[in-house]
Design goal:
Blueprint (H helix, E strand, L loop, with lengths): L11 H15 L4 E2 L25 E3 L4 H14 L3 E4 L18 E4 L6 E5 L4 E4 L5 H10 L4 E2 L10 H6 L15 E7 L5 E3 L33 E8 L1 E2 L4 E8 L4 H14 L7 E5 H5 L17 H11 L4 E8 L2 H16 L5 E4 L7 H9 L18 E6 L2 E3 L2 H17 L6 E5 L3 E11 L3 H21 L11 H7 L2 H17 L20
Parallel strand pairs: 2-4, 3-4
Antiparallel strand pairs: 1-2, 5-6, 6-10, 7-11, 8-9, 8-10, 12-14, 12-15, 13-14, 13-18, 16-19, 17-19, 18-19
Helix pairs in contact: 1-2, 5-10, 10-11
The structure holds adenosine-5'-diphosphate (ADP).
């Protein structure tokens, strides 16, 4: 017990009293304190820092809102910092691990009811523990004609991903945009329904987002202002037709033109889903590992990348898109899209049936159709015992910005000995680059290097005016500090809200760089 991480606010005696009270609420089998047999499951296995920095002192697994309210009473009494997770699969950004050692993980995966699916209006109401696989399987069993929009790994929580501003690959891919109605437990134990759901007689809680007064759902995403216990999420009705396609491009510089071509098509919705341009290595990891092409140190050289492209019949960039709708509509849209892509020299086209043995095609075609899978984890095999943290900046959707993001990240990654493994998504109006910084998690020196590289990338992008949309635990404060306009006015406001709603800081202190007054530096 002596080496155990403890909350900074507590003595061992106080911690043990708190645990005893939590056991009274949850029973023996839903309070976990054994570091080796229980709490190791709450590590961030992909951390670039040492496990000890994020080792929880305990984890607790409530099954209802009433239990959460009782837990909060204990947390307030002893000032125990709770760290809320849903399914805890947010790997690349910290997984189930808390921001700081000693926090108690509030693990909501046992709250996993699918409360409602409304076939007519196309929505579901789910609790935090419902994964994409759960919801998909449920809809399949009911022979529902509604699609889900999974994040790339299907084991994640529908609610957890939404609260993190996560994205998927169907036209409903902006998850928070598809949120309608939220239930939140505040630090003082009060329970709030947002939007129309707050009208006692409402029958539109999941049909209309705003209700009367301020729309507050955003306050509970990427924040620590409350515990989200239920969400409404809109689901896309199965369209009358679906045709995935892939267009490959041979040169790195093609990213400029791809982005110029795709952005207006996305803006006017001829491309209705997250238009994704996938880099060579990201795609290749479905079939090959680095060692097969390069045994030296540092990033794989251009000659190796060229050979991979030839062997796998893929491009330096690989665009995945899909047509949705009645066949005549798809036929017409395709004419416009084909002409646009053909304006880029070297573009090659592939459709259903053209790549029967290509798992990269298969999982992309599934994701754009709302079928969850876990294929993307193949990327971890690139370097053996692979791990990754993700760097995710947003810029305007122009060719110039795409090349600037790409070359800045690639050059920094190469400088630190890492490969560029990335994809670009054109959103409604912006460009998102997801760079997977993949490193060998068994090599301490490499982990340290990955950590330093990541910090540099944040600095580089702040200078270029590109903010990150999501942050790993270890980089939340650094990224928050880049949102500094008008003397950091936004984070000052966040802090004021935190102080009003959770003055003791019992809810996820430090999430996104938001701290209660007592812990602010
Ligand atoms: P997923 O399993 O979908 O990847 P997680 O459960 O790991 O998502 O949650 C990701 C992050 O989102 C957590 O670290 C936490 O900050 C936040 N989060 C998750 N669930 C909730 C919730 N119910 N209420 C508030 N914040 C949450």
């Amino acid at each position: 017990m002596s080496d155990k991480a403890l909350p900074e606010s507590l003595t061992l005696e106080q911690f043990e009293s708190a645990v005893a009270e939590l056991r009274e609420i949850l029973g023996q089998d839903r309070v976990y304190t054994d570091d080796i047999n229980e709490l190791r499951a709450y590590r961030d296995v992909y951390a670039t820092t040492k496990d000890e920095l994020h080792m929880p002192s305990a984890a607790i697994a409530p099954e209802s809102v009433e239990e959460i309210q009782k837990i909060l009473a204990v947390a307030r009494k002893y000032v125990v910092p709770l760290w809320t997770i849903s399914t805890g699969k947010n790997f690349a950004y910290g997984g189930p691990a808390p921001r700081k050692a000693g926090y108690v993980v509030l693990d909501l995966k046992r709250m996993n009811r699918i409360i409602e699916v409304n076939e007519k209006y196309g929505y579901a109401v789910v609790e935090p523990g419902v994964s994409y696989f759960d919801l998909y399987n449920y809809l399949q069993a009911k022979k529902s004609k509604l699609w889900i929009d999974p994040a790339a790994p299907g084991w994640g929580s529908v609610l957890g991903n939404l609260t993190e501003h996560g994205a998927g690959y169907t036209p409903y891919g902006d998850h928070f945009l598809m949120n309608c109605g939220m239930q939140v437990v505040l630090a003082d134990g009060s329970v709030v329904e947002t939007g129309m759901g707050s009208a006692s007689t409402s029958n539109t809680a999941h049909l209309h987002k705003y209700g009367h007064g301020p729309a507050v759902e955003g306050l509970f995403t990427q924040s620590n202002f409350g515990i989200v216990t239920k969400i409404g999420i809109w689901l896309m009705p199965e369209p009358p037709g679906y045709r995935p396609y892939m267009v490959t491009f041979p040169k790195e510089e093609d990213l400029y033109q791809i982005t110029e071509v795709v952005a207006p098509l996305r803006l006017n919705m001829l491309i209705p889903n997250a238009a994704t341009t996938v880099g060579l290595i990201w795609d290749a990891c479905q079939r090959v590992t680095k060692k097969q092409y390069y045994l030296g140190k540092g990033p794989a050289p251009p000659s190796a990348l060229k050979k991979i492209a030839e062997d796998l019949n893929i491009g330096m960039w690989n665009f995945y898109g899909a047509l949705y709708g009645p066949p005549p509509l798809m036929d017409n849209n395709w004419k416009i899209l084909e002409e646009a892509f053909r304006s880029i020299p070297g573009a090659k086209f592939y459709f259903e049936g053209d790549r029967p043995d290509d798992p990269a095609w298969k999982y992309r075609a599934q994701l754009m159709q709302g079928i969850p899978n876990m294929a993307e984890f193949s990327i971890m095999n690139w370097v053996g015992s692979g791990a990754h943290i993700d760097f995710a900046p947003r810029s305007p959707a122009t060719g110039e910005d795409a090349m600037k993001q790409f070359t800045t990240i690639r050059d920094r990654a190469h400088e630190y000995g890492f490969d560029y493994i990335g994809e670009f998504l054109v959103g409604w109006r912006e460009l998102l680059d997801v760079f997977m910084l993949v490193f060998d998690r068994t090599d301490d020196e490499e982990r340290q290097r990955a950590h330093e590289c990541f910090g540099k990338l944040i600095e580089d992008h702040a200078k270029l005016g590109y903010g990150e949309y999501r942050a790993h635990l270890d980089f939340m404060d650094q990224i928050a500090a880049t949102y500094s306009w008008n003397d950091g006015a936004l984070w000052k406001m966040h802090h004021r809200i935190k102080d009003a709603l959770d003055p003791q800081g019992v809810l996820s202190p430090g999430k996104m760089g938001i701290w209660p007054e007592s812990l602010r530096k």
